[in-house]
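Sample pair:
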Amino acid sequence: MSLASPDLRQLRYFVAVAEEQHFGRAAARLSMTQPPLSQAIRALEEALGVELFARTRRSVELTAVGADLLPEVRRILASADALRPLAQSLARGEAGVLALAFVSTADYGLLPLLLRDFGARYPRVRLQLAEATSDVQVDELVAGRIDAGLVIAPVPPRHAAQLAYLPVAREPLVIAMPAALSAQLGGAEAEADADDGWCATPVNLRDLADVPLVVFPRHLAPGFHDTIMDCYGAAGLAPRVGQEAIQMQTIVSLVSAGMGVALVPQSLRHLRRTGVVYRPLAQAVPTIETGLVWRVQEVSPVLAAFIEIVRAHAATVNAQPHA
């Protein structure tokens, strides 16, 4: 017949007897009588198959095995004592893991703000961050491999029933162009801020009609791609696509290499590249919307806490009309 495994009650009794070195004092400390305590220690020794105490009529001492076992039992009890506060922290969203993906455009404005505020409020939550295009994020969400994502709107209609979407930030597009081209168009390179390459002199898109465009592939970011094409269309232009790239860093690097110009969110001004100047558009300025998306049916306490942080940032954005 197999013996039952030791339980936490027996382990607490063992520590009390080991520390008091006396069954009577240990029983008083545990608010119980001595016979049940002695029986519990005997049951523990039988369950473990070893003697933990050397007993005489006047004293009780730990055996060598008992002495070696004592620190391990204390560690087990400490871990068990931590379970309740840990479970409560998990239930409140104060601990746990959050798998969050984000588009590269969010990396230069929105994402650092959200992570700073969330980290300050929930320092025990472990974040698993991954950069991915909007289409990849939607696939990862539907498959359950991430908890939430910062994407460029809109979310594909076919997933509207599965995914919740919260608009978070809108920002205007600006032109990223080679510094030499900027100087030719009347925005002297000296006007550009030495730190971020910003030149406040607007550029007319028609002046760039013959310059190749560096852009995201449409199938990876249809909302972003279409906004750029609509901007050219509103100016009566058909852009000449020179290069396509899926990362904002790559797009700006191609501009730096003289491969063309790019329409990018204004926050990309913080992505500094030698030989690149960022300038506003002279015509009506389109905006790009970034939002948080997650599965409707699977909102963990940690995710709910993150959504509240994002919602606080989005409050002023939602009060503004769409461009």
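The mean pLDDT is 87.
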